Structure formats: C-alpha cells, structure tokens
Amino acid sequence: MNRAPTGERRLRASGSRLQVERGLCSVWALAVGLVLSGGVRDQAFAQGPGTIQTAAALQWSNPEGYERLRYGDHPLQFGDLRLPAGEGPHPVVVVVHGGCWRSDIPLDYIGRFSAALTAEGVATWTIEYRRVGDEGGGWPGTFRDVGAGVDHLRTLADEHALDLGRVVVAGHSAGGHLALWLGERYRLNDAALAGDDPLEVAGAVSLAGVDDLRQALADGVCGNVAAQLVGGTPDEYPERYAQASPAELLPATVPHQLVNGSLDTIVPDAFGRAYAEKAAGSGASVGLTLFAEAGHFEVVAPDADEWATVRDVVLGLLP
Questions:
Q1: Sign, CA torsion 147/319/269/299
Q2: Collapsed DSSP state (helix, strand, coil) of residue 213
Q3: 228: closest CA among 296, 165, 137?
C-alpha cells in the first residue's frame, strides 16, 4: 500500500527555511453562518479564480456505500465506515471533517474524499463529533469525541477485518488540526482529554489544516472560534493550548504530512509552511506538499487535478 508521491512540490521540513506569511481571513466562518441562514447557495466566496468555491463544496453530498455506526451515546458520536473489496484485514484511514470546529457544518462534504480512498483499497472511518455550538462540544468534548472515535476502531476491528497496526488519520481544515492532535495525543498525561488508552496511529495528514491555534486567533482564521474551542484565550488557558495545538506538541513523534493550496484564502498555505519550519527547528521531519493552483477544497476533491498526489500522500503513510 506504500505509494511514492508523484507530481507534487514536496518540501522536507528538515531541510527547508520557509517564510511565514500573515494576513489570513475567515471566509469559512462566514460560510458557516450563511449555511444556517440559507444564503450559501447564492454567495460566491473569495477563493482564487478557477478554484472550487466554498458554496459549491458545502453542497457536496455524502455518497452511498457506508455503514453508519455509533461510538458513543450522544447523537453526534457516530462514524461512517466504508470497506474495500476483499476479505482483509484492511488498513484504515480515519477521516476528520472541518468547518471551523462549529456545529453548522457536518461530515457530508468530506464523504466523497472518503469514498475515493476506499476505492483505492483501504477502509475509511469518517467520524462525526460534537463541536462548538453543540451540547458538550468545545473543551474538552470535541477532543474527547474524536479520540473516542479513533479508539472505537478496536471494537470494530474483528467484525470488519480492520488492521489496527495500519491506521492513519487525515483531516481537512479544522479537521486537519484534530488529525495532527490525534497523532500525538497518546503523549498527553491527561486521560480526561486524550482517553484512557489512546490508539496509536501510524501517521497524520493535515489537508489545508489549522495547525497552530494561537496563530489562528492572531490571524483571525475562523474568527475567534479557536478560543471557543479551547474555552478561552492563550493568556487565560496557556496549559490548554499546550495540550491542544499541534504546533505546541512538536516535535511530532509520528510522521506528519501537510498539504496546502497556495490560492487558499480560508487557511492560507502560510500555516503549513510555518508548521514545517517550526518542525525543522524541533528536529522533527514533516512532509509539506504545496499546490500552486489549489484553493481550500481541491485538497479533498477526488475530481481535482491534485487528487492523485493527495491520495499518494495519505496512503504513503500506511506501513
């Protein structure tokens, strides 16, 4: 299942000095509000010319072919399991959707990404979770939910022929933040946050991800939702940011891959480049793939030109 990435510009953090850019925007947060008001269908958000617009992406439907299974008692504690052909045991990609950690955008839009990966011969487990605005979401519920979702693979493994030794996590946007966090949570000395016995994964992929919560607040990415997620500002809860922000959990102990589009106006590629630079300073090796002509959603669109490279980056982390 190992694939060598092709056709991308890949930088290794261990050998790159990357310039950090500022001036980020919160288009995604605006989109969230318009979803509730019904205005998203009539709005064109400021993605780069020729890229997938937010309004179109938020209308992507969740393809059939999955089994919806619960990992907890709350209505939002469930996942969509897709299995490839064959008897298994199957490697697994856990998929975490984005949406500014807010309750307004569910997992549906990321379903096409999961289905396309399953067509490549891996199981996918696309998890829903409580977010800011949901009862019990935010701190620590959002983190506990995604952790419990990953740990539930132990329950599913025998019946569905899943290979727990070959699990990676891939997340988009705010889900990219959570994917990187899931890769490192086993190091946290806080069972109430990380779980009693976190399932260790083989790697984590952040697709247009919010890799640094402090920087997200400073630059206005998703407005102030990062503070709502953590329960306050970095000045109020520095210890929470130390546990919750991937940039503060460096050096990474499992392989991380970052994928960003240079035309992304929601989470600009400065996030991926800054994280890679910080990883280099910590001695970690983190892969960075930059797409010059991609916006925020090409990195999770199976019909985009970038798909073959994204697929290879994700599947390339499987042992």
A1: negative
A2: helix
A3: 137
Tokens of 210: 């919010």
Residue closest to 295 by CA, chosen among 271, 258, 264, 269? 264
The pLDDT tens digits for 56-68 are: 999 999 999 999 9
CB 78 within 8 Å of CB 69: yes
Instruction: Give CA angle at 101 (307, 39), nearest 5°.
Output: 80
**What residues contact residue 236 under an 8 Å CB cut-off, 6+ apart?**
none
The DSSP bridge partners found for residue 205 are 170, 257
What order do you get walking across the sheet with 256-261 strand by strand? 9-12, 286-291, 256-261, 203-207, 162-172, 90-96, 123-127, 78-82, 67-70
- Full set of structural domains in the chain with CATH: 9-315 (3.40.50.1820)
Residue for token digits 């740990």? 151
Cα gap 33→169, rounded to integer Å: 28
Q: What's the chain's length in residues?
A: 319
Residue 175 phi/psi, 5-degree rounding, is -70, -25
Q: What mean pLDDT comes out for the span 45-57?
A: 82
Token pair, residue 4, equals 């060598």
Q: Give the confidence band of 46 by pLDDT, cuts at 50, 70, 90.
A: low
- Strands 256-261, 203-207: pairing is parallel
The amino acid sitting at 125 is W
Residue that wins the pLDDT comparison between 16 and 204: 204
